[in-house]
Design brief:
Elements: E1 8-13, H1 19-32, E2 37-41, H2 48-52, E3 61-64, E4 67-71, H3 74-91, H4 98-109, H5 114-133, E5 136-140, H6 144-167, H7 172-181, H8 206-230, E6 235-241, H9 245-260, E7 265-273, H10 281-300, E8 305-310, H11 318-332
Parallel strand pairs: 1-5, 1-6, 2-4, 2-5, 6-7, 7-8
Antiparallel strand pairs: 3-4
Helix pairs in contact: 1-11, 3-4, 3-5, 5-6, 5-8, 6-8
Length: about 325
Amino acid sequence: MLLTEKRVIWVGGKGGVGKTTVSSSLALLAANRGRKVLLVSTDPAHSLSDAFARHIGNHITRMAPNLDALEIDPDDEVEQHLAQVTSQLKRFTRPEMFGEIERQMRLTRQSPGAQEAALLERIAKTIELAQQQYDLVIFDTAPTGHTLRLLSLPEAMAAWTQGLLKANEKSEKLGAVLDHLTPKSGRDVTNPFDDPSEHATAGMDPRNKAIAETLLTRQRLLQHTREILLDKQQTALLFVLTPEKLPILETSRAVAALQQEKLPLAGLVVNRILPDTADGEFLAQRRAQEQKHLADIDQRFHQLALFKLALQATDIEGIDGLNAMAERLASSGI
């Protein structure tokens, strides 16, 4: 099965190794193979517009036949997310509490994980949209650590959502919802996700019902996202590195973390390998060092598919440059 036949592809790696160029070229390759593709940047330092040499921004933009692109702004997502939460909370509280709600939201804006939580919810909704309107969605992600936090968030946020449900247990009906969310109903005790019945909130107090339904809707969305991320038939993670010491070490740690989470890592793109035609004493020394790094990559990641790409003489940008890169990706076996 070709990588471009998946439904969701995440392209990650250390900053500066060529993730955006690889994800953009991969998107064009899939589009040229007849797939309808949505390419999404989740990196706060958006480079898709630079790669394609045209503005994209936080709205779906047609880039080429069969290919649309989108740059999600994490800061905007936080603002929209908190505005929505504030509005929902005000529906469930007395007017004299509005000032405290707004104060808490200002504090939340600066809290650790706020950006990732808001971004994850947008990503989950983007995946839902893509599954309805596209054959493939490719995520050009932020540097490695940010990506790993995002990929582990669905499970953590599901557990947090259940905590909120428990905190709002003020009626027998809400207790019934919680009973349905626990292993007492025959659920897997190691899995914090559930598929609550749409009738579970029937007969509840209207306020508690509104709170529970909001939380359960998020629960289902995160559950679906987690299921997709773990499904190796639908999803692939592709990490990009260069044959240098620091990218190799960072990728090694990322691979171990992804395998521990049982996420479907499809392989590694080894980018910017010196071509045989590069000459001169300086490049000869670089090539000798690079050969040691390439041997290290082959040994460390022998269980993974390796797609190797040569360093190009000039920058890769615009549709023509990315299409040429797409052809090299195809020749590498992707």
